[in-house]
Every structure is written in C-alpha cells, then in structure tokens.
Amino acid sequence: MSRDQQNKKEKMDMKRIPVIFFIGVSGSGKDTQADFLIDNYGFIKISSGNILREIKKEAEGNPDNYEAGVIKRILDDGKFVPTLTIASRWYHILIDLIHKMKFSHGPKDKIKGIIFSSSPRKLAEALLLEDFFNTWPEASVFETRPIFIDVSEKEALRRLQNRLVCASCKKNFMITNKEDKPVKCDSCGGVLEVRHDDTEENIKSRFREFKEFLIPVIDFYGKNNKLATIKGEQSVEGVYKDIIGVLSLDK
C-alpha cells in the first residue's frame, strides 16, 4: 500500500469530531441540551449569547468602546448583530482550538466535540461556518451536525415566562412551582434572576426573527440532508436521549 493510500485509509478510519449546531426558537432548550453534552462527554461550548453578553459588559465598563456600544444598543433592541461581528469571534476561537489540538498532545487539549449553542442564526452564518470547516486544512477532522429542536411558539413562550438564569455562570433554570422557586444556582451558588432581555416585547421580536432568519437555515440544512429534527416538547430527558441517538454517542 502506497503512502497516499495509507493516509486515505487512516483518514477514513478516523472518527470525525462532531460540531453540533443547536437550532431552535428561543426557549426550545438548546442551552440545557448543550450543558448535558458538556457534562457527560466533555464537549466544548461556543456560546454566541455569552460572547455578546461579554461585549455588552465591555460597553457598560467602557463607554468609549464604539463597537461594544453599538452591539449593546442592537441587543437591547432585541435584534441580531451583523454576521461579521460574531463570525470574527468564532474564527479566532476555532483557530485557537485547532492550534492547541495540533501542537499539544495532553489529554486536556483533545477535542471530543464542539457545540455552537443558538448558532448559526442566519443563512450567512451557516454558509461561513460550512466554508470554514470545508476549507481550513486541519478542520477536515470535524463534521458539522445541525440539530433542530422543534418547539411551538406557544410552548416556548410558556418556558420563557418561567425561566431564571444564574447571574454568575449563566445556567438556565425552569420554574415549575412559583411558590417554591429556587433562589441559588445548584452548580455555582450564584443568584438566580430573570434575564433582562426576557421581556414580552423582546420575546416576540425573537419569534419574528426566527421565522425570518432561521427558517432559511433549517431549509438549507434540510436540502443538504444534514438536518436532524428532534421533538422538543417531550421531556428534557427524552430530548437528550434522541440527541444521543442521532449523534450515535456511547451511552
């Protein structure tokens, strides 16, 4: 067997690393499912929401930061930021991860999977991500896996109206009993609060933008036979079980 043939065989035999795109309307449970995969499989999470919230924090701490100030204004209005704004952050995170994987050999640098929580949010973002993973030389070890968690607007609204978030680690909590609602995070002990952007006006804006921007993303992956659809109104455990099945992960 020639060297080229050997390299091809090794590449085919190697199990590709999943890059999961959780897609769904706000309140569909994307972050909850991402946290399960992180806790149980050690996946790395790239959260666009957390990235943008950090930029907002910069704006509040430094009013002279023009970019952060504009992004804060966009987010406060419940709108999507320009594609390049978030894509440039993804690029640097991905390059750093691939660099560590290529040049470091410790177990902590081995990537088991990457999760993009709540992304891509636009067709342009999906195309940019697919282009990166298809053309960056060392990215050939990855395989993009878009997963649509299907939840109705009615159910999503109910969940968002009963959602709390940890002020420290940003973990989400669902209130099932308002008379006995938790006050502290069970992960870090942080204070639980209502997300400031979970106003009725912002929630309705997110639903409108889902129809305008995310339906084309779902259609794109569906036409390319890459999309997995999960029934999101079953139990949290049921959703997780279906995701594990779709990804063919060891139990």
Automatic annotation (TrEMBL):
Documented EC number(s): 2.7.4.3
**Where in the cell is the protein located?**
Cytoplasm
Query: Which top-rank group of organisms is this from?
Result: Bacteria
The GO terms this record gives for MF are: AMP kinase activity; ATP binding; zinc ion binding
* Matching Pfam families: ADK
One term under GO cellular component? cytoplasm
Q: How does it assemble?
A: Monomer.
Q: What is this protein's record name?
A: Adenylate kinase
Naturally occurring in which organism (per UniProt):
Candidatus Niyogibacteria bacterium CG10_big_fil_rev_8_21_14_0_10_42_19
Q: What is the lineage of its organism?
A: Bacteria, Candidatus Niyogiibacteriota
